[in-house]
Specification:
Length: 192
């Protein structure tokens, strides 16, 4: 891959990288710095990219470590405010009947490996993450995407482990519903 091609591909994925970093760091300057550091790491050592994955996956892997570093630094220097979301209960309540069963069973999602290979799925996933309350999306991404441990997330965000698991549960429910509607939709699907 030539340097010009590499530069074009990195520039094309920069907006998505910035949105991801901003979701996690909630600070435009830190998000920009993280993305720039990740892109610079790729540009400084282009032969490190072996091609065993896509360039996007490779760059996101680097960005994840830059974000984790910034989260740790931010956690040592300031407290991150949590924002309670009172409307969350209403959203969850409509997913269950009075006896506690789900209103609609999840639809069959097919072969998960095949679905994950489709770029459109990630676009839908990104939109669904953006629809989540900021705190829920951040906690979900820290746990599921950045692979941070429960105690580390609790410490960084000043949450109890019980609160963390409730937030994760709510985020997963809403993501499931959003993906079900917007990716596996049938004729009765409607947006959140």
């Amino acid at each position: 891959m030539t340097n010009a091609t590499l530069n074009e591909q990195l520039e094309a994925m920069r907006p998505a990288l910035l949105r991801f970093a901003l979701l996690q760091l909630r600070n435009p300057e830190l998000a920009e710095d993280s993305v720039q550091d990740a892109l610079l790491a790729v540009l400084e050592k282009p032969d490190q990219f072996a091609g065993s994955s896509t360039l996007r996956t490779y760059v996101i892997g680097i960005l994840k470590f830059k974000i984790i570093d910034n989260l740790r630094v931010a956690g040592r220097t300031s407290q991150i405010e949590t924002e309670p979301d009172q409307s969350e209960n209403d959203v969850i309540d409509h997913l269950f009947t009075a006896n506690g069963h789900t209103v609609d069973a999840p639809r069959a999602w097919g072969d998960p490996d095949a679905v994950l290979q489709q770029q459109d799925f990630f676009k839908v996933m990104e939109v669904c993450l953006e629809k989540l309350p900021a705190q829920n999306a951040r906690v979900f991404m820290m746990r599921e995407w950045l692979d941070l441990e429960t105690d580390e997330i609790c410490k960084e965000l000043n949450l109890s482990s019980s609160n963390l698991w409730v937030i994760l549960y709510r985020a997963r429910l809403r993501l499931r519903e959003c993906i079900d509607i917007n990716w596996f939709a049938d004729s009765k699907g409607k947006a959140l």
